[in-house]
Amino acid sequence: MTFLRDVGSTMWSYISPRKTQERRDKPFKVPSLPTPATSRKGKIILQGSSPGPNTRVQTWDVKTPSPTFSSDDPALLPPSPPTSLERPYTDFEGDTLIDHMEENLQKGEDEKYDANDETLVVDEGRYVLDQKVDVEAERKRREEQGRELRGAGWTEDAIFLFQKLGMRGFEPILPMEWFHDFGALPADLFTRKIDLAYVKALGDDFHAQKALDGLFNLGPRARDAILTDAHPRTAEWHIKRFVRQYNQWAMKDVGMDTIWRDLSLFEVVSGPKGVDADSMESKMKTKLQRLALHWNTAFRMTQHESLDAEAVPALPTLYGVISSHTIMAFVSYDPLSKDDILRTVAMFDWGQEGYDVWNVIAVAIFVIHCRNRMLELKDWIPEASVEASSDPDL
Protein backbone atom coordinates (compact mmCIF):
# COMPACT_ATOMS: atom_id res chain seq x y z
CA MET A 1 0.00 0.00 0.00
CA THR A 2 2.88 2.33 0.72
CA PHE A 3 4.25 1.63 -2.73
CA LEU A 4 0.94 2.48 -4.40
CA ARG A 5 0.65 5.66 -2.31
CA ASP A 6 4.11 6.78 -3.46
CA VAL A 7 3.28 6.05 -7.11
CA GLY A 8 0.03 8.03 -6.91
CA SER A 9 1.80 10.94 -5.28
CA THR A 10 4.46 10.94 -7.95
CA MET A 11 1.95 10.92 -10.82
CA TRP A 12 -0.14 13.68 -9.23
CA SER A 13 2.99 15.76 -8.81
CA TYR A 14 3.73 15.33 -12.49
CA ILE A 15 0.36 16.55 -13.72
CA SER A 16 -0.52 18.84 -10.84
CA PRO A 17 -1.23 22.53 -11.55
CA ARG A 18 1.34 23.26 -8.85
CA LYS A 19 3.99 21.68 -11.05
CA THR A 20 2.88 23.92 -13.89
CA GLN A 21 2.99 26.94 -11.64
CA GLU A 22 6.53 26.08 -10.60
CA ARG A 23 7.54 26.05 -14.28
CA ARG A 24 5.84 29.38 -14.90
CA ASP A 25 7.84 30.95 -12.08
CA LYS A 26 10.97 30.56 -14.15
CA PRO A 27 12.26 33.76 -15.75
CA PHE A 28 10.81 34.27 -19.22
CA LYS A 29 13.20 35.30 -21.96
CA VAL A 30 12.08 36.86 -25.21
CA PRO A 31 13.80 35.09 -28.12
CA SER A 32 15.72 37.25 -30.53
CA LEU A 33 14.03 38.05 -33.80
CA PRO A 34 15.54 36.34 -36.86
CA THR A 35 17.34 38.42 -39.41
CA PRO A 36 15.10 39.14 -42.44
CA ALA A 37 15.74 36.89 -45.42
CA THR A 38 17.29 38.38 -48.52
CA SER A 39 16.77 37.25 -52.09
CA ARG A 40 19.63 37.09 -54.56
CA LYS A 41 19.67 35.61 -58.06
CA GLY A 42 16.49 33.58 -57.70
CA LYS A 43 17.49 32.03 -54.36
CA ILE A 44 16.26 32.69 -50.85
CA ILE A 45 19.09 32.60 -48.28
CA LEU A 46 18.09 32.22 -44.63
CA GLN A 47 20.30 34.15 -42.24
CA GLY A 48 20.52 34.17 -38.47
CA SER A 49 20.32 31.42 -35.91
CA SER A 50 18.63 28.11 -36.59
CA PRO A 51 17.31 25.31 -34.35
CA GLY A 52 20.35 23.16 -34.90
CA PRO A 53 22.90 21.88 -37.40
CA ASN A 54 20.74 18.89 -38.33
CA THR A 55 17.66 20.96 -39.22
CA ARG A 56 19.36 23.98 -40.73
CA VAL A 57 18.41 24.87 -44.30
CA GLN A 58 21.10 26.81 -46.07
CA THR A 59 19.50 27.57 -49.46
CA TRP A 60 16.09 27.22 -51.03
CA ASP A 61 15.83 27.18 -54.83
CA VAL A 62 12.67 28.84 -56.09
CA LYS A 63 11.46 26.88 -59.12
CA THR A 64 8.19 26.80 -61.02
CA PRO A 65 6.71 23.30 -61.14
CA SER A 66 7.22 21.74 -64.55
CA PRO A 67 4.03 20.89 -66.48
CA THR A 68 5.68 17.86 -68.02
CA PHE A 69 4.91 14.42 -66.70
CA SER A 70 7.80 12.00 -66.58
CA SER A 71 6.91 8.36 -66.45
CA ASP A 72 8.27 5.23 -68.05
CA ASP A 73 4.77 3.80 -68.30
CA PRO A 74 2.70 5.69 -70.94
CA ALA A 75 -0.51 4.37 -69.39
CA LEU A 76 0.15 6.55 -66.32
CA LEU A 77 0.03 9.81 -68.26
CA PRO A 78 -2.51 12.39 -67.05
CA PRO A 79 -5.77 12.71 -69.01
CA SER A 80 -5.34 15.27 -71.77
CA PRO A 81 -4.64 18.66 -70.16
CA PRO A 82 -5.27 21.45 -72.70
CA THR A 83 -1.59 22.48 -72.93
CA SER A 84 -0.09 19.00 -73.08
CA LEU A 85 -1.68 17.74 -76.31
CA GLU A 86 0.91 17.96 -79.01
CA ARG A 87 -0.57 19.19 -82.26
CA PRO A 88 1.10 16.99 -84.88
CA TYR A 89 -1.01 18.33 -87.74
CA THR A 90 1.47 20.76 -89.29
CA ASP A 91 3.93 19.61 -91.91
CA PHE A 92 7.19 21.28 -92.92
CA GLU A 93 5.48 23.65 -95.34
CA GLY A 94 3.12 24.96 -92.70
CA ASP A 95 0.02 23.21 -94.06
CA THR A 96 -2.14 21.29 -91.63
CA LEU A 97 -3.44 17.75 -91.91
CA ILE A 98 -7.03 18.94 -92.10
CA ASP A 99 -6.14 21.30 -94.96
CA HIS A 100 -4.36 18.50 -96.82
CA MET A 101 -7.31 16.14 -96.44
CA GLU A 102 -9.72 18.89 -97.47
CA GLU A 103 -7.76 19.65 -100.65
CA ASN A 104 -7.69 15.97 -101.62
CA LEU A 105 -11.38 15.38 -100.95
CA GLN A 106 -12.46 18.53 -102.78
CA LYS A 107 -10.05 18.45 -105.70
CA GLY A 108 -12.89 17.47 -108.07
CA GLU A 109 -15.02 20.46 -107.14
CA ASP A 110 -14.84 23.98 -108.47
CA GLU A 111 -15.90 25.52 -105.15
CA LYS A 112 -14.94 24.32 -101.67
CA TYR A 113 -17.67 24.11 -99.05
CA ASP A 114 -17.54 23.16 -95.38
CA ALA A 115 -20.54 23.42 -93.06
CA ASN A 116 -18.16 23.59 -90.08
CA ASP A 117 -15.88 26.24 -91.56
CA GLU A 118 -17.33 29.15 -89.56
CA THR A 119 -17.82 27.40 -86.22
CA LEU A 120 -16.07 29.39 -83.49
CA VAL A 121 -15.70 28.66 -79.78
CA VAL A 122 -16.11 31.45 -77.21
CA ASP A 123 -16.44 31.51 -73.44
CA GLU A 124 -19.80 31.59 -71.71
CA GLY A 125 -19.88 35.34 -71.23
CA ARG A 126 -19.00 35.99 -74.84
CA TYR A 127 -21.57 33.44 -75.97
CA VAL A 128 -24.32 35.40 -74.22
CA LEU A 129 -23.25 38.54 -76.02
CA ASP A 130 -23.16 36.72 -79.35
CA GLN A 131 -26.83 35.82 -78.99
CA LYS A 132 -27.57 39.20 -80.54
CA VAL A 133 -26.79 37.62 -83.92
CA ASP A 134 -29.78 37.80 -86.25
CA VAL A 135 -30.89 34.20 -86.72
CA GLU A 136 -33.11 35.08 -89.67
CA ALA A 137 -30.21 36.77 -91.42
CA GLU A 138 -28.09 33.66 -90.86
CA ARG A 139 -30.87 31.45 -92.21
CA LYS A 140 -31.20 33.60 -95.33
CA ARG A 141 -27.45 33.42 -95.83
CA ARG A 142 -27.64 29.62 -95.63
CA GLU A 143 -30.48 29.58 -98.13
CA GLU A 144 -28.38 31.61 -100.53
CA GLN A 145 -25.57 29.16 -99.99
CA GLY A 146 -28.01 26.34 -100.74
CA ARG A 147 -28.74 27.83 -104.15
CA GLU A 148 -25.03 27.87 -104.85
CA LEU A 149 -24.77 24.21 -103.85
CA ARG A 150 -27.61 23.28 -106.23
CA GLY A 151 -25.76 25.05 -108.99
CA ALA A 152 -22.66 23.03 -108.14
CA GLY A 153 -24.55 19.75 -108.55
CA TRP A 154 -25.36 18.87 -104.94
CA THR A 155 -28.42 16.76 -104.14
CA GLU A 156 -31.27 18.18 -102.06
CA ASP A 157 -30.59 15.65 -99.32
CA ALA A 158 -26.94 16.69 -99.02
CA ILE A 159 -27.90 20.38 -99.07
CA PHE A 160 -30.33 19.85 -96.20
CA LEU A 161 -27.62 18.12 -94.14
CA PHE A 162 -25.12 20.87 -94.99
CA GLN A 163 -27.49 23.61 -93.82
CA LYS A 164 -28.53 21.70 -90.69
CA LEU A 165 -24.91 21.33 -89.66
CA GLY A 166 -24.21 24.98 -90.36
CA MET A 167 -27.19 26.18 -88.32
CA ARG A 168 -26.26 24.36 -85.11
CA GLY A 169 -25.97 26.96 -82.41
CA PHE A 170 -28.45 29.25 -84.17
CA GLU A 171 -31.56 27.14 -83.59
CA PRO A 172 -32.86 24.75 -80.91
CA ILE A 173 -32.18 21.11 -81.59
CA LEU A 174 -32.84 19.15 -78.37
CA PRO A 175 -36.11 18.61 -76.43
CA MET A 176 -36.51 20.62 -73.23
CA GLU A 177 -37.05 17.40 -71.26
CA TRP A 178 -33.33 16.72 -71.69
CA PHE A 179 -32.21 20.03 -70.24
CA HIS A 180 -31.46 18.79 -66.71
CA ASP A 181 -29.46 15.85 -68.05
CA PHE A 182 -27.34 18.12 -70.26
CA GLY A 183 -27.14 21.21 -68.07
CA ALA A 184 -23.70 22.14 -69.40
CA LEU A 185 -25.13 22.83 -72.87
CA PRO A 186 -26.43 26.31 -73.80
CA ALA A 187 -30.10 26.74 -72.96
CA ASP A 188 -30.82 27.99 -76.49
CA LEU A 189 -30.21 24.48 -77.83
CA PHE A 190 -33.38 23.21 -76.12
CA THR A 191 -36.99 23.75 -77.12
CA ARG A 192 -40.39 22.90 -75.65
CA LYS A 193 -41.78 22.30 -79.14
CA ILE A 194 -40.96 18.68 -79.81
CA ASP A 195 -41.47 19.17 -83.55
CA LEU A 196 -38.53 21.59 -83.62
CA ALA A 197 -36.20 19.22 -81.78
CA TYR A 198 -34.20 17.50 -84.51
CA VAL A 199 -32.14 15.21 -82.24
CA LYS A 200 -34.76 13.29 -80.29
CA ALA A 201 -36.01 9.80 -79.60
CA LEU A 202 -38.80 8.21 -81.55
CA GLY A 203 -38.81 5.32 -79.11
CA ASP A 204 -37.39 5.13 -75.59
CA ASP A 205 -36.30 8.53 -74.28
CA PHE A 206 -33.93 7.15 -71.65
CA HIS A 207 -31.75 5.27 -74.13
CA ALA A 208 -31.67 8.32 -76.41
CA GLN A 209 -30.20 10.49 -73.65
CA LYS A 210 -27.78 7.75 -72.67
CA ALA A 211 -26.55 7.40 -76.25
CA LEU A 212 -25.99 11.14 -76.64
CA ASP A 213 -24.27 11.36 -73.26
CA GLY A 214 -21.88 8.58 -74.27
CA LEU A 215 -21.04 10.46 -77.45
CA PHE A 216 -19.48 13.25 -75.37
CA ASN A 217 -16.66 10.86 -74.43
CA LEU A 218 -15.39 10.76 -78.01
CA GLY A 219 -13.23 13.89 -77.83
CA PRO A 220 -11.42 13.01 -74.57
CA ARG A 221 -10.88 9.42 -75.68
CA ALA A 222 -9.38 10.53 -79.00
CA ARG A 223 -6.99 12.98 -77.34
CA ASP A 224 -5.97 10.53 -74.62
CA ALA A 225 -5.20 7.95 -77.30
CA ILE A 226 -2.60 10.36 -78.69
CA LEU A 227 -1.05 11.09 -75.29
CA THR A 228 -0.76 7.44 -74.31
CA ASP A 229 0.08 6.15 -77.80
CA ALA A 230 -2.64 3.56 -77.23
CA HIS A 231 -2.34 1.20 -80.19
CA PRO A 232 -4.50 -0.24 -81.63
CA ARG A 233 -7.12 1.99 -79.97
CA THR A 234 -6.01 5.09 -81.80
CA ALA A 235 -7.88 8.36 -82.20
CA GLU A 236 -9.38 7.33 -85.54
CA TRP A 237 -10.38 3.98 -84.00
CA HIS A 238 -12.39 5.80 -81.33
CA ILE A 239 -14.07 8.05 -83.91
CA LYS A 240 -15.14 5.02 -85.94
CA ARG A 241 -16.37 3.18 -82.86
CA PHE A 242 -18.39 6.03 -81.36
CA VAL A 243 -20.09 6.93 -84.64
CA ARG A 244 -21.14 3.31 -85.17
CA GLN A 245 -22.35 2.96 -81.59
CA TYR A 246 -24.53 6.04 -81.87
CA ASN A 247 -25.90 4.78 -85.18
CA GLN A 248 -26.74 1.44 -83.57
CA TRP A 249 -28.91 3.23 -81.02
CA ALA A 250 -30.56 5.35 -83.75
CA MET A 251 -31.51 2.30 -85.80
CA LYS A 252 -32.70 0.39 -82.76
CA ASP A 253 -34.75 3.41 -81.72
CA VAL A 254 -36.92 3.01 -84.83
CA GLY A 255 -36.92 -0.80 -84.87
CA MET A 256 -34.49 -1.13 -87.79
CA ASP A 257 -31.55 -2.67 -85.95
CA THR A 258 -32.13 -5.93 -87.86
CA ILE A 259 -32.25 -5.06 -91.54
CA TRP A 260 -31.63 -6.73 -94.89
CA ARG A 261 -27.88 -7.04 -95.51
CA ASP A 262 -27.31 -4.49 -92.74
CA LEU A 263 -28.21 -1.82 -95.26
CA SER A 264 -27.15 1.69 -94.33
CA LEU A 265 -26.86 5.15 -95.80
CA PHE A 266 -23.22 5.70 -94.87
CA GLU A 267 -19.90 3.93 -94.59
CA VAL A 268 -16.90 4.58 -92.34
CA VAL A 269 -13.25 4.59 -93.39
CA SER A 270 -10.37 5.37 -91.04
CA GLY A 271 -6.59 5.50 -91.26
CA PRO A 272 -3.56 6.72 -89.29
CA LYS A 273 -2.13 10.20 -89.59
CA GLY A 274 0.48 9.23 -92.17
CA VAL A 275 -1.90 7.50 -94.57
CA ASP A 276 -2.39 9.07 -97.99
CA ALA A 277 -5.68 10.94 -98.31
CA ASP A 278 -6.06 9.68 -101.88
CA SER A 279 -6.06 6.07 -100.71
CA MET A 280 -8.76 6.75 -98.12
CA GLU A 281 -10.82 8.58 -100.73
CA SER A 282 -10.48 5.68 -103.14
CA LYS A 283 -11.43 3.18 -100.42
CA MET A 284 -14.47 5.22 -99.42
CA LYS A 285 -15.61 5.60 -103.02
CA THR A 286 -15.36 1.84 -103.55
CA LYS A 287 -17.42 1.13 -100.44
CA LEU A 288 -20.10 3.66 -101.43
CA GLN A 289 -20.31 2.24 -104.94
CA ARG A 290 -20.85 -1.22 -103.48
CA LEU A 291 -23.45 0.22 -101.09
CA ALA A 292 -25.28 1.81 -104.04
CA LEU A 293 -25.48 -1.62 -105.71
CA HIS A 294 -27.07 -3.05 -102.56
CA TRP A 295 -29.70 -0.28 -102.59
CA ASN A 296 -30.37 -0.90 -106.27
CA THR A 297 -30.86 -4.61 -105.57
CA ALA A 298 -33.20 -3.84 -102.69
CA PHE A 299 -35.36 -1.58 -104.85
CA ARG A 300 -35.55 -4.19 -107.63
CA MET A 301 -36.64 -6.86 -105.17
CA THR A 302 -39.44 -4.75 -103.72
CA GLN A 303 -40.47 -3.41 -107.13
CA HIS A 304 -41.89 -6.82 -108.11
CA GLU A 305 -44.15 -6.74 -105.08
CA SER A 306 -45.35 -3.18 -105.69
CA LEU A 307 -48.44 -2.52 -107.79
CA ASP A 308 -47.18 0.94 -108.73
CA ALA A 309 -43.80 0.58 -110.40
CA GLU A 310 -43.47 4.34 -110.82
CA ALA A 311 -43.51 4.81 -107.04
CA VAL A 312 -40.10 3.18 -106.66
CA PRO A 313 -37.81 5.90 -105.28
CA ALA A 314 -34.52 6.90 -106.82
CA LEU A 315 -31.28 5.74 -105.28
CA PRO A 316 -30.67 7.81 -102.14
CA THR A 317 -27.72 10.08 -101.49
CA LEU A 318 -25.04 8.13 -99.66
CA TYR A 319 -22.57 9.45 -97.14
CA GLY A 320 -19.18 8.61 -95.73
CA VAL A 321 -17.31 9.29 -92.50
CA ILE A 322 -13.57 9.53 -93.08
CA SER A 323 -11.31 9.77 -90.04
CA SER A 324 -7.56 10.18 -89.82
CA HIS A 325 -5.90 10.85 -86.47
CA THR A 326 -8.33 13.31 -84.83
CA ILE A 327 -9.66 14.69 -88.11
CA MET A 328 -13.16 13.63 -89.16
CA ALA A 329 -14.91 14.45 -92.44
CA PHE A 330 -18.45 13.97 -93.68
CA VAL A 331 -18.66 13.38 -97.43
CA SER A 332 -21.61 12.82 -99.75
CA TYR A 333 -21.89 10.61 -102.83
CA ASP A 334 -24.58 10.78 -105.49
CA PRO A 335 -24.86 7.38 -107.22
CA LEU A 336 -26.99 8.93 -110.01
CA SER A 337 -24.50 11.67 -110.88
CA LYS A 338 -22.19 11.46 -113.86
CA ASP A 339 -19.47 13.01 -111.71
CA ASP A 340 -18.08 10.08 -109.76
CA ILE A 341 -16.72 12.24 -106.93
CA LEU A 342 -17.02 12.68 -103.19
CA ARG A 343 -18.26 16.05 -101.99
CA THR A 344 -17.07 17.30 -98.61
CA VAL A 345 -19.97 18.30 -96.39
CA ALA A 346 -18.04 19.26 -93.26
CA MET A 347 -14.73 18.63 -91.49
CA PHE A 348 -14.01 18.49 -87.76
CA ASP A 349 -10.98 18.25 -85.49
CA TRP A 350 -11.44 16.29 -82.26
CA GLY A 351 -7.99 17.42 -81.14
CA GLN A 352 -9.42 20.84 -80.23
CA GLU A 353 -10.93 20.41 -76.79
CA GLY A 354 -13.13 23.50 -76.90
CA TYR A 355 -15.07 22.20 -79.90
CA ASP A 356 -16.27 18.93 -78.34
CA VAL A 357 -19.86 20.09 -77.80
CA TRP A 358 -20.35 21.31 -81.37
CA ASN A 359 -18.61 18.26 -82.83
CA VAL A 360 -20.86 15.94 -80.81
CA ILE A 361 -23.95 17.80 -81.99
CA ALA A 362 -22.69 17.50 -85.56
CA VAL A 363 -22.34 13.71 -85.25
CA ALA A 364 -25.81 13.52 -83.71
CA ILE A 365 -27.30 15.57 -86.57
CA PHE A 366 -25.55 13.41 -89.16
CA VAL A 367 -26.75 10.11 -87.67
CA ILE A 368 -30.30 11.37 -87.04
CA HIS A 369 -30.46 12.64 -90.63
CA CYS A 370 -29.56 9.17 -91.92
CA ARG A 371 -32.03 7.56 -89.52
CA ASN A 372 -34.91 9.75 -90.71
CA ARG A 373 -34.06 9.03 -94.32
CA MET A 374 -33.96 5.29 -93.59
CA LEU A 375 -37.46 5.55 -92.14
CA GLU A 376 -38.68 7.10 -95.39
CA LEU A 377 -37.20 4.19 -97.37
CA LYS A 378 -38.23 1.47 -94.94
CA ASP A 379 -41.07 0.16 -97.13
CA TRP A 380 -38.63 -0.36 -100.01
CA ILE A 381 -36.16 -2.45 -98.04
CA PRO A 382 -36.64 -6.24 -98.21
CA GLU A 383 -37.34 -8.05 -95.01
CA ALA A 384 -34.33 -9.52 -93.31
CA SER A 385 -34.14 -13.29 -93.63
CA VAL A 386 -34.23 -15.11 -90.32
CA GLU A 387 -32.23 -18.32 -90.26
CA ALA A 388 -34.13 -21.25 -88.75
CA SER A 389 -32.38 -22.85 -85.83
CA SER A 390 -31.49 -26.54 -86.02
CA ASP A 391 -32.16 -26.97 -82.30
CA PRO A 392 -35.76 -28.24 -81.88
CA ASP A 393 -35.89 -26.84 -78.33
CA LEU A 394 -35.48 -23.27 -79.55
UniProtKB/TrEMBL annotation:
It comes from the Eukaryota. Residues 19-28 have a biased composition (Basic and acidic residues). The lineage of its organism: Eukaryota, Fungi, Dikarya, Ascomycota, Pezizomycotina. This is Uncharacterized protein. Residues 15-89 are annotated as: Disordered. It comes from Lophiotrema nucula. Residues 47-58 have a biased composition (Polar residues).
